[in-house]
Amino acid sequence: MKIVSYNLNGIRARLPRLIEYLDEQKPAAVCLQELKCQDDAFPIEDIRAAGYEAVWHGQKGFNGVAILTPKAPATLRRMGLPGDPDDTHSRYIEAEVGDLVIASIYLPNGNPVGTEKFAYKLAWMDRLRAHALELLAEEKPVVLAGDWNVIPTDDPDDVYSARAMATDALAQPESRAALRRIVNLGFTDALRARYPKGALYTFWDYTAGAWQRDAGFRIDHFLLSPQAADRLADAGVDKEYRGREKASDHAPTWIDLTD
DNA sequence: ATGTCAATACAATATTGA
């Protein structure tokens, strides 16, 4: 079963891209990020016309996450991370899909470094770590999918230029350590596990011809619990969609799990 | 700093957040 993570950068602006992706790839589940729409503006009828159902958590203007599944909606487990009742950002949704627990994650960007935004990013990652530990205790196949807004290493297979990103929140040692603290609980970074070598960029900036010169980096990740990692058959990036008309700046990223 | 983009407030452009 193909499970996809796709940061759309606006579901209304990207609706043709999303519908054609569903038609062409027929994924078993799609985790969406950056809906940039309120709950009542979510285009559920268009998604139903494509044969899919959804659970979603929108927000005016920015953020917003969803999980799409064919025919029937996933069983919602939670919207939002525990640990901060004052957090108003729509960045986390978790649902059961068959015997899987799947989360769609839109981790804070955190730029610029040294501001409240960066502190929020690190605090949010610590809340995610605490929740991920609770999920592991269930001993189920768990898939944490999304835009993690962290480039895991300075390896050219993860980032086109470590130097260009050195001062960015996505590449800070603190951001990477916070990601490692989650992985090291016992999760598998599915894409790198499947392909230890080779560029696996998932994002190319709109500016400065980044796509044309392949100046990308890897920030969309799948973290798998042991029970899910046992079923990992393949993983990849549907890079071609980044080159289409009115594309998102992210490419759909996916795993294939055995049923 | 940016060869960019989407949404919003507001009513043609500026701001925010990527």
From TrEMBL:
One of its GO terms (molecular function) is double-stranded DNA 3'-5' DNA exonuclease activity. Pfam families: Exo_endo_phos. Its EC number is 3.1.11.2. One of its GO terms (biological process) is DNA repair. Residues 4-250 form the Endonuclease/exonuclease/phosphatase domain. It is an enzyme of class 3 (hydrolase). InterPro entries: AP_endonuc_1, Endo/exonu/phosph_ase_sf, Endo/exonuclease/phosphatase, ExoIII-like. Keywords: Hydrolase, Magnesium, Manganese, Metal-binding. The record marks 220 as: Important for catalytic activity. Its cofactor is Mg(2+); Mn(2+). It comes from the Bacteria. The active site is at residues 106, 147, 250. Probably binds two magnesium or manganese ions per subunit. The record marks 250 as: Interaction with DNA substrate. The record marks 149 as: Transition state stabilizer. CDD domains: ExoIII-like_AP-endo. Mg(2+) binds at residues 7, 34, 147, 149, 249-250. Belongs to the DNA repair enzymes AP/ExoA family. PANTHER family: EXODEOXYRIBONUCLEASE III. This is Exodeoxyribonuclease III. It comes from Allosphingosinicella ginsenosidimutans. The lineage of its organism: Bacteria, Pseudomonadati, Pseudomonadota, Alphaproteobacteria, Sphingomonadales. The gene is xth.
